[in-house]
Every structure is written in C-alpha cells, then in structure tokens.
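Subject: Sanity check before I submit

Could someone independently write out the structure tokens for this chain? I want to compare against mine line by line before I put it in a report. The sequence has 251 residues.
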Amino acid sequence: MEKIRINNQKKFYEIQSINLISANILQITFVDSIPVSWGDIYVYTSGGYESTILYGYDTIYRDEGYTIYLSNDGSIYQIPIEPELVIPPAPYCPTEEELLISAKSSKKAEISSACEKAIYNGIDVTLANGTKEHFSLTEHDQLNLFGKQAQIIAGVKQLEYHADGQPCKYYSSTDMETIIQSAMWHVSYHTTYCNALNMWVKGCESVEEVNTIYYSFGENVPEIYRNDVLNAYLKQINEMTGNINDEQNIE
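---
Independent answer below. Compare away.
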C-alpha cells in the first residue's frame, strides 16, 4: 500500500489512492489517520521507495472524510447553486439550433471518453534488450512516470517500475527514459487529436455532420480543422511507419 508524508514531517500516512483530477486539484483517499497540515507531498511506493514529490498542495479544497481534495492555487470548493427549474410548456419541440447544440455536447463527451480510454490503454515499449513490454497510462501511472523523470534528472541510474501484470523490477535510466518519452508522446498525441476533433464539432452546421464524426485517427480530421501540432504528429507517424493506420489502442 502506498504512503505519503507532508513537508519535512517524519510521519507516514497510508493511502488507498492519489490522483490528479485537474491541473490544480489533487485527490487523496486515506486508510486511517489524516494529516492536520499540508504542503509538499512526498509519495512512496508500497515497497517504500519515494516515487514523486507534489509541490505546493497546502489548501484543503474539499473534505469528504477519508478522501481529501487539495489545491495548489489556494482554491476552495464552492457548493453550486441549483438553478431555478424552468419547465417549458408542453408539448415542446426543440429548435434545429437546440438539436445541434445537444448533438455537439453529446459528441464532445463521446470524444472525451474515447480519448481517455485510448490514453489509459497505454503503450507497448521496446526496451534496449529488444524485449517489448506494455504500460498502462492512467492518471496515476502518468503521475508515477513524472516522478521517475525527476529521479533521472537527479542522476539515478536504476529505477524501480513494473509493466502491466508484471512484478516490480529495476529499469536502467535509458530504458526508463524511453518509457517516459513514449508515454509523453502517446498522451500528447491523443490530446492533440481530441482537440482537433472538438474544433471540428464546433464548426459543424448540422446534426448530420456532427454524427459523421468519430474517434479513429488523425487523418479523418478535415484539413481545415487540423492544427500544426496534429499535422506534425501525423508526419512523424508516417516517417516512423511508412503509412497511416488506425490501430491506436481505442478498441
């Protein structure tokens, strides 16, 4: 079970999970005792190795008992004010504009879910010895890899990690750098592709056009909605593989 400690305190706290839920909000679920003060958070693996440091989380954003949300920008959760319920007179027929807005909202949610799944499904990485291993890329996995990157910068030559379904083992800094770079590329590519699809959805003028959009691969995005970053990724993929295909782990 993972543990954390706060700032320079010596006490460790057992946790069930730790996740970044937004750019500035961190969610931690504790097993029993909870710290009374916050700040820099040192995360340790179940084996007792320091995996990463999360700086500046010194504000309680939201308290749900054993689940604590922290912010690193001073923000605090505000209970949303329920809007006044307005019931339209029956029968109500939505306008074409309203149908288009609804279709766009649903399509963006569909795209977001597909992008998240594609990222979480992870990557296959070929290591220096020629073996290939698979690594999932949930938000927690990404958080751990960012910690490994800090260790590499600090000069650590052997880093503990594990592939999917495999026991923890030591990876050379070279192999770990390969894993990290592959992971960063994978996440960045799918984020860029997702953004381009959303721009396409935004530009649609009919429900029929919205319904033609699906999460597949970068080349299904019309040129007008492809940004320079996506085009660069597609060019890079062409150079690496010699062709474009849609096998992007989104099944």
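---
OP: Matches mine. For the report I'm noting this point. The longest strand covers residues 13-20.
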